[in-house]
Protein 1
Amino acid sequence: MVKDGAIIRAAGAGPFNVEAVAAYARRMAQLVAGVEPGGRFVVIAHMSRSILAPPDAWAALDASVRSRRLGPARQVGAAWVRVGEVEGWALMLPKITAIYAAIDVPLRGFDDEAAATAWALDVLGSRDS
């Protein structure tokens, strides 16, 4: 995971267990802490192989996403980019979309990096987000 201006870029290759999600959450918290107070950011996550995970891992991801509402910076979007065939994509994308919707952050699924980045930059440029 890296911070690229107002975009935090991540990559994951599932299936995911709760330990992997916890490690992701710790690193995400570090990167979000580097966003200036009052700043806005978008997460772009590249997903490969699978996005399947057991219920405890989904609960940990939900907790990580919800914790981002409490900080001084504001997440205004999330994009998941499918890298090749991803097991569980159609089944689980609505689940992650709902997790982000709970904190009023739009999440979109993409098949390519360029489209995800263009969307992220558009969301960052919007003052209503």
Note: The first helix runs from residue 18 to 33.
Protein 2
Amino acid sequence: MTYRRWFVVGGAFALVGALVAGFAIFYGNFSPRGYVRDRYVRAAAQDIGGDATAYRSDKSPSVVADEITGAWQPADRYVDASGVYLRYDEDSVVILPLAGGSLILLERLVTAYPRYSSTVGNAWGWGRGSTVRGGGPGAGK
């Protein structure tokens, strides 16, 4: 009986693993980056070099930000007249107003920090869980 029980438990774990793998392959948006990639229109002409990947939406920046943050809670959020700036652990999502909608820029924090620091200042909380190094002697080492 003991072997049979372990066989059933092993089969259950295998089934759960297969379901998780299938979900990942089918939906593929286990990050803010994947969420944006799956739901918005690619706008390659608006990319910023090789750093920021651009997408478009016909919705306003605030609506797009609400959609994204409803699925993926950011570590920090900054909003002003220029747009909505979302900081995640390794990525940023910047949503700028565009005639008839929004421009959505996906970028790694290591390049987003110097680009947007003059806009967001300390609002992104660079020292709290960020992968960006800095903060004084011994910080981030």
Note: The first strand starts at residue 41 and ends at 42.
